[in-house]
Amino acid sequence: MPQEHDDLQQQLNQLDVDFVRVVEDLIDALVENGSLRLSDLPIQAQEKLSRRKQTRKRLSDALDLLSDEEGLL
What we know:
84% of the residues lie in helices and 0% in strands. By secondary structure, the chain is mostly helical.
C-alpha cells in the first residue's frame, strides 16, 4: 500500500505542476487580450509569476547556449 500511496502522490504532484503551467498560460492570454491587467492580481501573485517567467527564461537561455556549444564540437 505505501508504494501505491507514493505513486499517487507523485502523480498528484505532476498534475499540480502541469496545472500551474495552464494557469500561467491562461493569465498570459487574458493579459494579452486585455481582459486582465497584471496589476489586478495580488502583489504576491505578481511576484511569483515574475519569478517563474525569469527562471523559465534563464533555463531557456541556458538550453540555447548548450545547443550552440554542441554545434562547435
